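Supplementary Data S3. Sequence and structure tokens for construct A.
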Amino acid sequence: MPSVLIVDDLLSIHEMLDAVIQPTGFTTAFATDGEKALIRYKADKFDLVLADIDMKPMDGITLLKQLKVYDPSAIIVIMTAYASTESAVLALKFGAFDYLQKPFRVDELIATLKRGMEFKHFNTERANSTSAPAVKAADVEGRLVGESPQNKKLAQQVKKLVTVRTPVLLQGESGTGKTTVAEILHAGSAPAEAPLVRIDCEQSSADDFHAGLLGHNGAGGTWVQQARGGTLLLQNLHCLALPTQQELVGVLRNTAHSFRLICTTTEDLEKLTDEGRFNDELFYRVASLPVALSALRERADDIPALVKHFLGKATNPNFDANLIEFTADAVDTLRAYHWPGNLSELGQVVTKIAATTDTRVVTSAQLPLRLKEVKDWPKLADYLAGQERQYIEMVLNACRGDKIAAAKVLGVDMAKVFK
């Protein structure tokens, strides 16, 4: 039977919890403070830890931190008597599986413990799998193209993340490959027939969210039900309104054990949280494993390999697109470009050229104008030295009058530049 270590300085709490937990199939053990609990856990590793936050000499948060250092896989539920969620959010920040606010209902307690065990079983099964690593490695290396240090680091992170079910937050500019990483994680951590439910928080309406994601009474809507046993992918999470974020917290508390949660964002959610523009509890529930994807301009050495990769997926009416080659000067131009659209933009450029070229050799002259003129633009130092209007006009001309593209190059709000 699964074991629970109950940590509380009140013996009456021990007796009460023992009476309600044991009949549900758990064995129980007890400690009256954090120091004793740490000793007991090291001597006899428990499946779950249920710890009060207000204890002396070692409180629940300190115990949580030390347990996660000793055993990163420890499943810890924190009990708090505070009316606010401040202490609960702090517990999530330091790796608690969940929290319970006193007084809590017995069914809420048992449901939380069962979710913890489901989470533990999933991670244990993935860790003990003998066939998955080779499959994961082949899939990762085949889809995350490039030998740059940034891409190698990302590939290593992804290979580790497919073995756990912990929520993952993918952060990066538009077009950096967040959806690709999400697809790899789903394929590596779910059965072949399991669903991948994709929801774009930027495109979905408030009514869609309430019906599909939130549902009624915190049970989740149709999207949540569809994702059971598979993966729920919430794209552009930063676009959710604050009230919706708060409702989503309740849904995740009740349902997140039944699917793999992956979220993507182009914003710095931690900064938004500090500024009060993103729900702090939601942040710590989705960001326990953040993964940063580099912009293409930061890994320009991968461009030759990426060009070959996209050529392999392209078509040409006259010959095999795989036979197309980009000259050295063409590749140098691609390296010098800033790529505001990142991998998506590079893929579109290569695919279009491959589809329209009547020669197998692509030179710099065949590249779009916006790519070739970037190296002739003034340096940013000149821009900052007072040549603002001239710089803006040159960027705008290079972008053929496209104000949105020029604003991306400048890295500023379009409305502030083009009045």
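Construct B, processed identically:
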Amino acid sequence: MSTRNRTIASIDIGTNKITAVCGEIEDGGVTVIGCSTQPSYGVKKGVIINMDSTVDSIKRALDEVERMTGLDITVAVTGISGSHIKGISNTGVVPLSSREVKKADITSVLEAAKAVVIPTDREVIQIVPQEFVVDDQDGIKDPLGMSGVRLESRVYIVTGAVAAAQNVIRCMNRSGLKVQDIILQHFASAEAVLTDDEKELGCALVDIGGGTTDVAVFSQGCIRACSVLPIGGNHITSDIAIGIRTPLAEAEELKRTFGTACPDHVESDATIEIGCIGEPGRRTVSQRTLAQIINARVEETITLVQNELIAAGYGDELPAGIILTGGTALLRGIVDIAQKILGMPVRVGTPLRVRGLNDVKSPVYAAAVGLVQFAARGCMLEKTASKRMFGFLGVGERMRQWFAEAF
């Protein structure tokens, strides 16, 4: 197979699906030239629990993308999520070596800000500079060249379980891929579906996957809080299977075909035929019953999101509202329920600023496309100070040593 310059591949390892995307950096943007989604059987609540199954799914997704693009893909970026993800805010302060802020001062203050004590089984995954303060002047995004005697940095530090990250790397390597970087899933999805205005004004990204729901709050252009809830679309499917006694596979199909989170939107006499667990033949159930089951779980999920926003101090301070993404965001009526509970504007987020295959312009591909866009932005900033000072400092620069120790 041939290879092309400036191509980036991503692998999104999810609870329900493994998604691979390949894009080319063109004219400062990304053109998607290949994509594939394969069922995932080795992941639970965002964490790998079966290496062999996960590797098989990655290989199938990768093979399909290679056939579509004609490329031999050996390097890829990937994401990480799961309930082990934790975020904390911290500050660092250094005196200026001269009365002008230099690159070395910025490096020093960021090093000071990330000097936090964390358990030995956890590691820093990403550090996000939020703002700088020169003397008493705050809200500075780029302090380089400014005059002062004291430089302070305010950062958001994301940590995760070392073992969970190492398992991601092991699966990628066993699939024949070298990991270019590992990126927090929240950041990848945000890169794909949020606008700069939304990040500046204040918004919350809610990525509802199969086993987890990622919540990230943005304000003044930076992330302010993030968390992972151990609940997702699979819980809706399970509730349907239990509530109307039907196999899980059929419950998933019912959710996709007939499901809605708003029972009032369903005709009272509407019915559907379903299969029974352990019994031959089919029987009839009310569509409204199906909607009531879905509604209960969706309301619980959105209420948990609301609690996370309140705990972060943003219960009613998000002018740009809520952006839902992930496969469950396609569920009919979920936007109405979210608006009712949260009391904010809500929209469904699909990948923005992406060219090429139309298939990826769906919430299902938000994280995978965001991984490519995130990595592409890093490539474009590679030769500037911006990547270190203002971008998301990725895992590749800080965790290379303990990755090596894992193998």
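The chain has a mean pLDDT of 89. The CA atoms of residues 32 and 356 lie 5 Å apart.
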